[in-house]
Design goal:
This protein is α+β, with helices and mostly antiparallel strands. The protein is 31% helix and 21% strand. The protein has three helices and five strands. The protein has a five-stranded mixed beta sheet with strand order 2-1-3-4-5, covered by helices on one side. Helix 2 packs across helix 3. The longest helix has 14 residues, at 25-38. 27% of the residues are buried. InterPro entries: Thioredoxin-like_sf.
Length: 103
C-alpha cells in the first residue's frame, strides 16, 4: 500500500512587474498560493521578481523542481497555475506546450 506523498522541493518564481500585473499576475499568484496551501505542499516556495523584458509573454512563471530541468511557462492563467501545481510539481511532468525554451 502506498503512503501519503511527500511534498516535493520546488520553487515557483512569478514575474511580477507592471506589465505582468496588468495582464493578470495577481490572480495567478493567488491561484498558486491557494493551490499550494490547499494541497499542503510545505516544501514549495513562491517568490516574485521583476520583468525580464518579455512583456508580450506575461505572466511568466519559472518552476524549479528538484531533479527536473528548470522551465519557464508563459501566458500563465489561474487555471494553468493549478495545472502546473498538479502536473509539474506534484506529478513531475513538465507541460511542454506551455514552456518557453531557453529563457
Amino acid at each position: 500500500m502506498e503512503g501519503p506523498r511527500e511534498s516535493p522541493n520546488a520553487q515557483v518564481v512569478l514575474r511580477y512587474g507592471i506589465c505582468s500585473i496588468a495582464v493578470g499576475a495577481k490572480d495567478v499568484l493567488t491561484a498558486f498560493q491557494k493551490e499550494i496551501e490547499d494541497k499542503n505542499l510545505n516544501n514549495v516556495r513562491i517568490k516574485t521578481t521583476g520583468c525580464i523584458g518579455l512583456c508580450s509573454m506575461e505572466p511568466l512563471v519559472d518552476v524549479h523542481v528538484e531533479g527536473l530541468p528548470n522551465v519557464t511557462y508563459h501566458h500563465v492563467t489561474p487555471e494553468m497555475a493549478r495545472g502546473i501545481v498538479f502536473h509539474h510539481i506534484q506529478n513531475r511532468t513538465i507541460i511542454n506546450e506551455w514552456v518557453i525554451p531557453n529563457v
